Amino acid sequence: KGVIVVASELHELLALCDRIVVLSAGTVTGTFERPSFSEAALLEAAFRNLPGKEALDHLRGLLAALVERRA
């Protein structure tokens, strides 16, 4: 048995899930199982199929915010 959770808040996913499957632009870009998933890996997979510079800039901003939040 299982439950499908759809969320964009990483802290919710990390707290609730034993397995996370990431979709980006309609394609599975990563499957992660506890305890091996990390916020950085999930973010990278989430933006993998988005077009060029815009996706990279967005990902860099999210990663910077994550690092800042941990400091």
Question: What's the structural blueprint in terms of helices and strands?
Answer:
Blueprint lengths: L9 H7 L2 E6 L2 E7 L5 H8 L5 H19 L1
Helix pairs in contact: 2-3
Can you summarize this structure?
This protein is of the alpha+beta class.
Order of helices and strands: HEEHH
Beta-strand portion reads 15-25%
The helix fraction, in percent, is 40-55%
Residue stretches low in confidence (pLDDT < 50, at least 5 long) are none
Shape: globular
Alpha-carbon Rg, integer:
12 Å
Q: Strands of the biggest beta sheet: in what spatial order? A: 1-2
How is the main sheet built? 2 strands, antiparallel
- Distance between the first and last residues' Cα: 38 Å
Mean pLDDT: 84
Number of strands: 2
The number of helical runs is 3
Q: How does the helix and strand content classify structurally? A: alpha+beta
